[in-house]
Sequence to fold (73 residues):
Amino acid sequence: MLKDFEDDYEVCSCMSISLKEIVDAIKEHNLTTVEGIMDKTEAGTACEQCQSAEKSEGNKELHLDEILKEVRG
Fold:
């Protein structure tokens, strides 16, 4: 799924956080939770819609929980 998006795809538009920044943070800091991603990158800390599909109201194509699941496998 992540391969369908460019590295510079903006996952969190409120904080201007890219897919690459999120993936790099997960790998570098061995993150295992959405909260960990939020703490290290600030993604998902404003409107919260990029955290998960349940919170996005259909406005986002990619969410932090999905990225985490794919990176952690």
Remarks:
- The chain has one domain: 2-72.
- The mean pLDDT is 95.
